[in-house]
Amino acid sequence: MNLNNLKKLSGDASFRNFYRSKSSIIVYCEKNKKSNLLEYDAINKILIKKEVLAPFLISQNYKKNYIEIQDFGDLTVFKKFKNKSINKKIYYKEIIDLLIKLKNIKIKKQTTFLNTKYRIPSYTQKMLLDESNLFIDWYLPKYFKGKTHQSLKKKLKIIFKNLLKNISLTEKVFVHRDFHISNIMITKNGLALIDSQDAVFGNAAYDLASLIDDVRLRTNIQTKNFIYDEYIKKNKNLDHKNFKNDFEILSVLRNFKIIGIFTRLSVRDKKNKYLKLIPYAWELIYSRSAKSPIFKDLNYILTKYFDKKKEN
User: Which CATH code is given to the segment(s) 74-108+122-306?
Assistant: First the structure.
């Protein structure tokens, strides 16, 4: 297949490139192609089995680094929301229904198109900690040097570890891990989910935090509370106190991860377009951490060292 003859689509933060043919999408990936092609399709197969709209595989040429998948078009919920007259609450109710569908998925194993077995991994505390530490590894060195850098690094690692120790919920559910409105497509058959290659089995609060505290879309507190309350309303047996605790911790740590990833994309990969989203990630961290005594140690560090950095 000659990719030069196809229309290249705008990419994301991964190593993938996307091309549109007459009736399908070509996903091309040389680096990390196992997760971005093989495992991505395996997870989509699980979603489709459970009646979640996800792109089905049309063909594959794994040796030549690409797969051909269903084309859902270009209309994401994010694009739809640019129309100021849209009633967002209607869409958020549908999105919550989709999220509950995901939460109820129990399938963990799937045969891939290479006839190998793929098992969706657990979202372990180590994985969560490693992700949070991306902030320490990539963002800190940009602004702090020498003894201050080493001291902050040590303190933040302890704070992140202690926050994760305070996670309460033990049940693990299907977690998309990048559940936000840029990854939700509007189709004639309903909402469809893309970019599921990083799915894990983990904390139920994680995807909701991704949706509500989405760094790509600035929303007011009323909208955030509406989405949260809608989720609670539709999950009658939820332990509300522990869920709220986990939601706040995971939102804060996720946004530290995001700042780290966006900094890495700029420093390592020369992708600078995500830097403009960092100030809002800081806002989300500050607003969530201000509401609970569990963030006391973090708030001390933020006030002492980061008040002037958060706008960068």
Answer: 3.90.1200.10
